[in-house]
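User: Hi! I'm working on a homework problem where we have to compare a predicted structure to a textbook description. Could you give me the structure for the chain below?
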Amino acid sequence: MKILYVITSTAAGGAENALLSLAIPLSKNHSIKIVSLKHSGLYADELKKRGIEVVSLEMGYWPRPRDLKRLKKIISDFKPDVVHALLFRAIQMCRALKGRFKLFTTPHTNYQNKSKFLRLVDAALKSRDTMSLAESRSTADFLLVNQRYNKNKVKVILNSVTGFGPDAAARQKLRAEQNCEDKIIFITVARLEKIKGHRFLLDGFAKIYSKKKNAVLWFVGDGAERENLAAAAAALGVKKAVKFWGYQKDIAPFLNAADVFILPSSSESRPLALLEAAACGLPLIAADTGDNRNVVRHGQNGFICNVQDPVMLAAVMGELADNKKLREEFGSKSLEISAELSNNYAEEHLKVYT
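Assistant: Happy to help. Predicted structure tokens:
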């Protein structure tokens, strides 16, 4: 089978990570090609190392006529059996060029953040999908109720992760290297953009740090907000307790070294970072958005709270920092939930393609 994946970006991110989980295993038995609308990112390099062809349209924020023309030629030359579009702009462009191929779409975004105009564009073109493969139940619900998708053309294939689990040796090694054996390490993994809410996390951390000098906050990921966040950490007096790791190809050692995972974003679908942290056995803190409640069972393996309220966020962070037994109980429950939520992501898609 010839499968063409079209994605808005190949930078480090949740949807891009999901693309790797599809393209790499399926490339063993199928012909795979990737089109990135924007400039090729870090994940494009990983795909190329696996022998998978990646083409970039070098598109800006809005598609140009020549971008559509070039994508049309790529589709015509490759002659795919299946085109699978991921992320909003890639989806709309592939819908506009719909031909004889099967077209599958996966939003990988919270549609509530889209403008009314963009949602109208989506509604106008939705009928061109062979099927929409929603990555979360919250996305599926929004498509069916708000966008009025045909219920027979929407299938839920939940985001899932593999290759993550508890690693005591990795934990001990990294904590020793960072002189953090006696520290309580809070960690978040996400690109450093305003939409991810990292400033709220800094404000919450500053409130507990004044009383808990053994607390540490790790940011894993990079982005445009890095300098602003570093400046804010200095202004809040927590600079020496905050570490910016930048982009990391392998985040498992960092998750294993940490004690509590926090996702400060108030708008998510079914975030892979949350699933990865659960698979490593971490207590979780996140907002009540998207499918977060399916991963974070409030009071069982973590807390659902208003992450934009520094006082509330500091309260739950402080409770976990003070109570090692609670962290252990929540961590064990996270492992149980992670096992419950696992699926064979690539195989589930292949069944639908065929």
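For your comparison, note the following. The first strand starts at residue 2 and ends at 7. The chain has two domains: 2-157, 168-341. Good luck with the assignment!
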